[in-house]
């Protein structure tokens, strides 16, 4: 975890504290995203197993949040059995409703490693802006999500070999079927303008069906397949529901109140994952018969010398003293930002329900932010009795 992540976690924490000051019952959730290629690549680098890496980072997150003064009602993991079950259940709902189908595709394959190259296993050139990019995202350029096989000039990140192309079969979510729904959804979505506008821009450019599987051993297996697991951004947001279910099992609470009932859902997320939370995630929920978010609060990106602040790449050059000076300068800037703009955005949202309704009388809040080889989701869930005189 680095200083820039506070841009996501602190607003959610501020929101929880504000709601409690109003006397409302607040549930605050978080969890570790333990699947996907960031975990498997790190495991190969360290000569260990993905499960060991996932547990290592999961425990790290569990310990560090209390030290920051952030306490959750439940801290889960996407590798918990409850999330495996919920992911399969949602996938089966989507299959039964005709929103998931199989398709033959031609994808990058490393002849030296003799395997397909999903996501972080390859690097190349972004087809949209020409910047060097990793397999699933142009993280230092235009920030675009990249579909498997879309990146140009792919090469294996493990051995450096130029990739060849081989045919295989994958499972796709029929994202194009949700275009009309998403237009309406984004018009009424609360939260920050950067989230809505970014998603609207992609929607205007035309949607493509979404590849939701990967050639990986680590992850949640796709039902009926021996070779495919779910793409991390399919099962990771479902972990929001899984963590709520874990809380419900422990306390006797009602998780369906939020995810299938009148509860309100608000996500606090990093600015680099708007695409996933404003397009993919609501489509999954809608297609499977669950409630969709009422608002998305997306942070901006903290930059150092023109680059996004990240553990994934080298940000600094020069002496250790100059590096520490730059980090301290950045830290002061982030703290100042958190004390002004973030607080203003969060309290504005807190005082103004995004979807007033006599039947939706409680709030729930969620979000995601990458941290390290594994990632950690942040979110708040707020439930309160309707009081006509309460601040809006």
- Name of the CATH superfamily of the domain at 3-97 and 190-204 and 233-383: HUPs
Distance between the termini: 34 Å
As for the CATH topology of the domain at 3-97 and 190-204 and 233-383, it is Rossmann fold
Number of strands: 18
What's the helical proportion of residues? Answer: 25-40%
Task: Give the gist of this structure.
The chain is of the alpha+beta class and 392 residues long.
Describe this protein's structure.
The radius of gyration is 21 Å and the shape is globular. The protein has a domain at about 5-95 and about 190-205 and about 235-385: HUPs (Rossmann fold), CATH 3.40.50. It has ten helices and 18 strands. The strands form five sheets. A seven-stranded mixed beta sheet has the order 2-1-18-17-13-14-9, sandwiched between helices. A four-stranded antiparallel beta sheet has the order 4-3-8-10. The chain has helices at about 5-20, 35-45, 50-65, 80-95, 180-190, 195-205, 230-250, 255-260, 275-290, 320-350; strands at about 25-35, 75, 100-110, 115, 120-125, 130-135, 150-155, 165-175, 190, 210, 215, 230, 265-270, 295-300, 305, 305-310, 365-370, 375-385.
């Amino acid at each position: 975890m680095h200083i820039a992540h506070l841009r996501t976690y602190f607003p959610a924490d501020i929101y929880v504290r504000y709601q409690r000051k109003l006397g409302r019952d607040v549930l605050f959730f978080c969890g570790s995203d333990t699947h996907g290629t960031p975990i498997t690549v790190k495991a190969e680098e360290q000569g260990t197993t993905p499960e060991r890496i996932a547990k290592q980072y999961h425990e790290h997150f569990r310990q560090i949040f209390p030290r920051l003064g952030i306490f959750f009602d439940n801290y889960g993991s996407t590798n918990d059995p409850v999330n495996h079950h919920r992911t399969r259940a949602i996938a089966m709902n989507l299959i039964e409703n005709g929103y998931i189908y199989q398709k033959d595709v031609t994808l990058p394959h490393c002849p030296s490693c003799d395997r397909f190259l999903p996501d972080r296993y390859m690097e190349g050139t972004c087809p949209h802006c020409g910047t060097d990019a990793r397999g699933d995202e142009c993280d230092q350029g235009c920030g675009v999500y990249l579909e498997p096989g879309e990146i140009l000039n792919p090469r294996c990140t493990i051995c450096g070999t130029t990739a060849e192309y081989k045919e295989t079969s994958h499972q796709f979510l029929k994202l194009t079927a949700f275009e009309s729904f998403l237009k309406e959804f984004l018009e009424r979505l609360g939260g920050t303008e950067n989230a809505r506008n970014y998603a609207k821009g992609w929607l205007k450019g035309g949607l493509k069906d979404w590849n939701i599987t990967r050639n990986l051993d680590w992850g949640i297996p796709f039902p009926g397949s021996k070779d495919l697991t779910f793409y991390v951004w399919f099962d990771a947001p479902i972990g929001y529901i899984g963590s709520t279910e874990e809380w419900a099992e422990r306390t006797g609470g009602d998780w369906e109140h939020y995810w299938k009932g009148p509860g309100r859902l608000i996500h606090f997320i990093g600015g680099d994952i708007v695409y996933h939370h404003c397009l993919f995630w609501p489509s999954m929920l809608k297609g499977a018969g669950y409630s969709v978010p009422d608002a998305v609060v997306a942070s901006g990106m903290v930059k150092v010398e023109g680059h996004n602040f990240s553990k994934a790449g080298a940000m600094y050059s020069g002496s250790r003293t100059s590096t520490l000076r730059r980090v301290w300068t950045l830290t002061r800037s982030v703290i100042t930002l958190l004390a002004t703009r973030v607080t203003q955005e969060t309290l504005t949202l807190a005082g103004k329900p995004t979807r007033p309704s006599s039947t939706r009388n409680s709030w729930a809040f969620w979000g995601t932010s990458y941290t390290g080889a594994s990632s950690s989701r942040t979110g708040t869930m707020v439930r309160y009795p309707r009081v006509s005189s309460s601040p809006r």
